[in-house]
Design goal:
Distance between the termini of chain B: 58 Å
Mean pLDDT of chain B: 95
CATH architecture of one domain in chain B: Up-down Bundle
Radius of gyration of chain B: 23 Å
Order of helices and strands of chain A: EEHEEEEEHHHHHHH
Number of strands of chain B: 23
Largest interface: A-B, 56 and 62 residues
CATH superfamily of the largest domain in chain A: Alpha-helical ferredoxin
Number of domains of chain A: 2
Shape of chain B: globular
CATH class of the largest domain in chain A: Mainly Alpha
Number of helices of chain B: 17
Helix content of chain B: 25-40%
Number of helices of chain A: 8
Strand content of chain B: 15-25%
Oligomer: heterodimer
Structural class of chain B: alpha/beta
CATH class of one domain in chain B: Mainly Alpha
CATH topology of one domain in chain B: Methane Monooxygenase Hydroxylase, Chain G, domain 1
Largest sheet of chain B: 9 strands, mixed
CATH architecture of the largest domain in chain A: Orthogonal Bundle
């Protein structure tokens, strides 16, 4: 099995390059995930650098671009991939080393939507009541693992990474807009009502097609726009 | 090699090592107090392993059926096989309801009942009326409760303005020349710079170390870094023989299939299709305590009733459940199953096998999270040092943890340690950052992994950090797994010595400073190997079976000789002991009894 992997070490390389690796067919099994293959390649070359942790698609560490699509290596079956397998870092953000990217901009956008529940005064003798139907509204947004696959697949983000919040941050915003407990709906909508922050989204839908958790940030952004429209009427 | 080891201008009121549930809950409490707090985490906070907790968090809210913290306390003590400290357990169970409601106020998206209250599900080892009937106590956000809690705590910390040093790896505690803990050396993973930090107080919240076993539910980051640090600082680890093997990991892979699956009605079946838990725990069957269920599964397989062509796994059967219940209440495990088994649990049973899940032992603390040690027969508080969460042993889980009590432990003791630390900071000494530090030991360790090139000696040049780690995991699994006996464990000791020898000789091929993951894994392996020793020595010495520690050669619990905590010191692998606190804070003691489910 052949892998073509993006390499860059800022201490030794003037420019990025690609390196070809081979994995002996005896070394892989039918149900092997890409992460396991990368670990075997790291045995061949311990300098090959990537992030990973939970090995089951919940921590969001190992987003990478695989054969042109953003995915999590730990839940991507090798058998699904056509060969040679080309692996590059997630696009649109600076590369620290090999497949490790600098996600600061991504995290700053997340922080910018103030992703914190603003609920009435704390009464620790009672929980806020929320009906199952109200709670259902959060399904599809609270599960985001901040892996960055969506935002870094978005051409609008590539074009305006500093001003467009990107699908992950907007999905987080929608999680709080939809929470029946949250009191800041108006303020949140006002803050998002901006030609760049939200409206650079052009419904390209790369985000939705690349989300490894099957979430739909594109729909969430459309819903935010819809809420703004309703508010202004 | 960076030469900024001596730069000494990072001074804090408190440093929290680890940004999982415990570390972030503590950080939040301290951020609100306006002290200068730094959180050091080797991964971005939401990558911490709390994110993987599935089933829920226990609190006697009584939203579904009548409940009481006192019943929860009894269940926890019985679950611990009476090794848990009853003062700490009472404290945790009393705090539980308020702390879960506080999480709800922070924004945790708990699932809901028709009443609008927090959804609760039945979990193993939980009862009403002190063992009478099954309780419904585990508060859940579908089967992603850890994710929901961790992300919410991170969000609250963003609002509170906590300083988080992401991708900084804590190497070692630094002592001053009087031997007091005074600071921390850490490695900035992104740049490769070593950074000295001083603080009035250091709080260890580095989580567990399940990576010491081959098949485990733990993340790659769970290498017990705080435990290694404590041992190197001359401090003991407590009850390290007690590792929880979760009954239901995906066979051959280890990913967790939440106990919530059985809480929602799932059944374990052997090759004959028999729901065999009835034979092992006639009363509560599949919802017996985890140690009991894991042993039952191992026995079924050993006696030839395992499933599959090699008869080497058991099936977790959800096929009789309503498909909507599975989609609604167990979406995460359905996903995992589709991804890793390639089958939908709505239609097919899930192949499972016990898998290493949780470390009951850890750094001994009192119920305020202050680290304690034993010197000359005296139990003392270690000034300036706290530990919480899975890294700590307070001890609320004793010899076996109940499902749903881990998230609770993190949050309760995260808050409590921070409150106590906050009080301690009222009398902070202005001279705290003056004393000269003893940097020699950490410098030596840094030099070792900074300069170790792959040698040309053919015997060692083919060896690698990854290979040594895999061999360690194999040794621990073979020699100190679900069932143990003296002969098997004794064979492991020379094997650990050989691994230790290899680790001292192996070189690194990656010589870079920027994001050097090979070097990081070498530092981590120092810790894992130390934990392997702690586990083996503690397990060899304890000649009884209690909770998760099952000695084939000593099958009975022996309260006369062994109702006590083990303390392991790394120096010459010596063991000492500490009495179990049988006296709760306000209620009557629960005297040790035979443990039947």
């Amino acid at each position: 099995m052949k892998f073509i992997i993006y390499r860059f070490n800022p201490e030794t390389d003037a420019a990025p390059y690609t390196q070809t690796f081979e994995l002996n067919s005896a070394e892989f099994t039918d149900d092997m995930m890409l992460l396991e293959a990368l670990q075997k390649l790291k045995e061949q070359d311990p300098t090959l650098t990537f992030r990973s942790s939970c090995r089951e698609g919940v921590c969001g560490s190992d987003g990478m671009n695989v054969n042109g699509k953003n995915r999590l290596s730990c839940i991507t079956r090798l058998s699904e991939l056509s060969q040679p397998i080309t692996i590059r870092p997630l696009p649109g953000l600076p590369v620290i080393r090999d497949l490790v990217i600098d996600m600061d901009t991504f995290y700053q956008h997340y922080q910018a939507v103030e992703p914190t529940l603003e609920a009435p005064i704390k009464d620790l003798d009672h929980e806020h009541l929320q009906s199952p139907a109200e709670r259902d509204q959060l399904d599809g947004s609270y599960e985001c693992i901040l892996c960055g696959c969506c935002t870094t697949s978005c051409p609008s983000f590539w074009w305006n990474p500093d001003k467009f919040l990107g699908p992950a941050a907007l999905l987080a915003a929608s999680r709080f807009l939809k929470d029946s407990r949250d009191q800041n709906t108006e303020l949140r909508l006002e803050s998002l009502d901006d030609a760049y922050k939200t409206f650079r989204c052009r419904n390209i839908q790369n985000c939705t097609s690349s989300c490894p958790k099957g979430l739909d940030p594109s729909k969430a952004i459309a819903e935010i726009k819809h809420m703004m429209l309703k508010k202004s009427l | 090699m960076n030469t900024n080891l001596q730069t000494d201008d990072f001074h804090f009121d408190a440093i929290i090592i680890g940004a999982g549930g415990a570390g972030l809950r503590a950080a939040l409490e301290l951020a609100e107090s306006k002290h200068q707090v730094a959180v050091i985490s080797k991964v971005f906070p939401t990558r911490s392993h709390t994110v993987a907790a599935q089933g829920g968090i226990n609190a006697a809210l009584g939203n579904v059926s009548a409940d009481n913290w006192h019943w929860h306390m009894f269940d926890t003590i019985k679950g611990s096989d009476y090794l848990g400290d009853q003062d700490a357990i009472e404290f945790m169970c009393r705090e539980a309801s308020e702390i879960v409601r506080e999480l709800e106020h922070f924004g945790v998206p708990f699932s809901r009942l028709d009443s609008g209250k927090i959804y609760q599900r039945p979990f193993g080892g939980q009862s009403q009326e002190f063992g009478q009937s099954q309780a419904t106590r585990t508060c859940a956000a579908a089967d992603r409760t850890g994710h929901a809690i961790l992300h919410t705590l991170y969000q609250q910390n963003l609002k509170a303005g906590t300083s988080i040093f992401s991708e900084h790896y804590a190497l070692d505690l630094i002592k001053d020349q009087d031997g007091q803990i005074a600071g921390l050396m850490c490695l900035d993973i992104q740049t490769g710079e070593y950074r000295l930090m001083r603080a009035h107080h250091i709080l260890i919240a580095t989580g567990g170390a399940g990576q010491v076993y081959r098949t485990n539910t733990n993340a790659t980051i769970n290498t017990g870094d705080g435990l290694g640090m404590a041992l190197r600082a001359g401090l003991p680890l407590m009850d390290m023989e007690f590792w929880q093997f979760h009954p239901t990991g995906i066979a051959g892979k280890g990913m967790l299939m939440s106990e919530g699956a059985r809480g929602e009605g799932g059944l374990l079946r052997n090759a004959d299709g028999e729901a065999f838990m009835e034979r092992y725990a006639p009363k509560v069957k599949d919802l017996a305590s985890r140690d009991v269920v894991a042993r039952a599964i191992s026995i079924e397989i050993r006696q030839g009733r395992g499933c599959g062509p090699n008869k080497d796994y058991i099936e977790l059967d959800l096929t009789h459940l309503d498909a909507d219940i599975i989609k609604k209440r167990l979406p995460g495990i359905r996903d995992l199953c589709l991804t890793f088994v390639g089958k939908d649990p709505i239609e097919h049973p899930i192949p499972i096998h016990p898998t290493c899940h949780y470390m009951m032992g850890g750094i001994p603390t009192n119920l305020h999270g202050q680290v304690i040690t034993k010197q000359n027969g005296q139990i003392n508080v270690v000034p300036g040092l706290y530990a919480i969460g899975e890294a700590a042993c307070v001890s609320v889980h004793g010899a076996n943890r109940l499902g749903g009590n881990s998230l609770l432990d993190l949050i309760v003791f995260g808050r409590e340690a921070a409150r106590h630390l906050n009080q301690s900071l009222k009398t902070k000494s202005p001279e705290r950052f003056d004393p000269a530090l003893d940097l020699a030991p950490v410098e030596q360790r840094i030099q070792k992994w900074q300069n170790s090139e792959t040698s040309n000696n053919s015997a060692t040049s083919t060896d690698s950090i990854r290979q040594i780690k895999q061999d360690l995991q194999q040794v621990m699994e073979q020699h100190c797994g679900v069932f143990r006996d003296r002969a098997t464990m004794q064979q492991a000791l020379p094997k650990l010595d050989a691994l230790s020898q290899r680790l001292s000789q192996v070189g690194l091929q990656d010589r870079s400073n920027v994001f050097n993951t090979e070097r990081l894994q070498a530092f981590e392996l120092d810790n894992l190997l130390a934990i392997g020793y702690a586990t083996l020595h503690s397990a060899l010495a304890r000649e009884e079976s209690r909770g998760a520690h099952s000695r084939v050669d000593f099958p009975e619990r022996d309260d006369q000789a062994w109702l006590k905590h083990s303390l392991y010191f790394a120096g010459s692998h010596q063991l000492d002991y500490k009495p179990v606190q049988l006296k709760p804070l306000s209620v009557e003691s629960f005297e040790p009894k035979a443990r039947v489910y």
